[in-house]
User: Which sequence fits this backbone?
């Protein structure tokens, strides 16, 4: 493979990839709807125009997925997976440019989803086009663009994996933050969730007669710190993950601008669950004592940790609180279930992936575990395909206002996704 030629083709596609990213950002695919039909139609049009074989796969017509395929001479098949759905934009006034404007300014494409992860999707689209224009590529390559990643992959990667549609030798996950040209890194895996809901039940009464009521909100507030105690519970992830965890801590320390306290918590939460209470509901009227209130917690575990043990420990804490009427709800978990996914760093796949990124960037390539979840959980755990991540996202952009991506990162993504598809053996 001629790496200089790939680099040149990617650099020549700078405007193309920026315009595609801007175009894709303009389709609002935010949850709770999370509709990907317009984004998929946009990708299909581009692929059709360039003669790239493609298929739409949908379990929900409003949430289709699309695959672009370039057939190779050999037997090997490389998958690339990225998602088209995004999280809500939050308050519009927090955005310099409207969240779905796809504005191109200051060397960046701006808007919800630019970093997480429509940018990487457009880099993959251009890679598919470039590979398709080459004669005799060695590997078959499939670029999958999915729905529902932000809510667990129900109509997207999880469904595609469960129905046997993902088939391949290795899979590149385009989600996450690959550190750009300066601090390149690949993802060995990602944390997984063990979210719980704390429910408080009491006795309703008129607001003027507190002695007759039993206020569920009051109990809920008292119960929350008992759930949060899980922040210090030692996780039971496999020993052989320890070097990757040390690398991850080092990576986040270097690339995120953290205060000493933030740094301490970041490192701590690779060994213990991270826990945040992010939704509270309760109460119906100012003059009614509520008999029901609930709090939802996002709890993230280092890959390989047993989720049920964590949930049972939370239940124990809540019981220890002695507060009556509290209950911990969670999804069905089997004792053997473990969180997230991770690959070992010593496979031929990992070496080839790191080496090509090193060749392209000229920098040492770090390995890390992503704190957020990705479609890699489905490709690795359900479809059984070794999955490593390299994302084009900028640090600290995902799920934030003023989300953006540098055009430089998009071009780098085109280079890496194209070159790896060609060199993998
Ligand atoms: Zn993402």
Assistant:
């Amino acid at each position: 493979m001629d790496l200089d030629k790939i680099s040149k083709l990617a650099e020549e596609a700078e405007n193309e990839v920026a315009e595609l990213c801007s175009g894709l950002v303009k389709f609002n695919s935010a949850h709770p709807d999370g509709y990907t039909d317009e984004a998929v139609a946009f990708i299909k049009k581009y692929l059709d125009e360039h003669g790239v074989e493609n298929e739409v796969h949908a379990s929900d017509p409003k949430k289709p997925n699309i695959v672009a395929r370039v057939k190779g001479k050999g037997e090997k098949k490389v998958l690339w997976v990225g998602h088209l759905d995004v999280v809500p934009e939050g308050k519009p006034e927090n955005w310099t440019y409207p969240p779905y404007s796809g504005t191109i300014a200051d060397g960046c494409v701006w808007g919800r989803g630019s970093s997480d992860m429509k940018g990487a999707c457009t880099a993959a689209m251009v890679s598919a086009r470039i590979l398709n224009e080459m004669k005799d590529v060695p590997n078959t390559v499939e670029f999958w663009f999915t729905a529902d990643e932000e809510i667990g992959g129900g109509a997207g990667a999880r469904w595609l994996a469960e129905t046997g549609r993902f088939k391949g030798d290795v899979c590149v996950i385009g989600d996450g933050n690959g550190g750009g040209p300066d601090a390149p890194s690949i993802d060995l895996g990602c944390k997984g969730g063990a979210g719980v809901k704390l429910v408080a039940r009491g006795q309703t009464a008129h607001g003027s007669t507190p002695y007759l009521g039993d206020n569920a909100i009051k109990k809920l507030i008292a119960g929350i710190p008992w759930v949060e105690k899980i922040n210090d519970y030692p996780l039971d992830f496999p020993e052989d993950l320890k070097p990757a965890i040390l690398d991850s801590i080092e990576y986040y320390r270097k690339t995120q601008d953290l205060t000493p306290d933030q740094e301490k918590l970041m490192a701590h939460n690779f060994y213990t669950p991270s826990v945040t209470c992010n939704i509270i509901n309760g109460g119906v009227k100012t003059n009614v004592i509520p008999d029901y209130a609930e709090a939802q917690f996002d709890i993230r575990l280092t890959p390989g940790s047993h989720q049920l043990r964590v949930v049972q420990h939370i239940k124990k804490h809540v019981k220890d609180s002695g507060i009556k009427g509290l209950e911990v709800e969670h999804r069905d978990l089997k004792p053997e279930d473990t969180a997230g996914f991770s690959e070992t760093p010593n496979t031929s796949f990992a070496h080839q992936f790191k080496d090509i990124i090193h060749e392209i960037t000229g920098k040492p390539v770090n390995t890390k575990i992503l704190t957020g979840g990705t479609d890699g959980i489905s490709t690795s755990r359900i479809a059984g395909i070794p999955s490593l991540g390299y994302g084009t996202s900028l640090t600290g952009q995902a799920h934030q206002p003023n989300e953006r991506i540098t055009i430089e990162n998009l071009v780098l993504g085109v280079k890496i996704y194209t070159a790896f598809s060609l060199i993998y053996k």
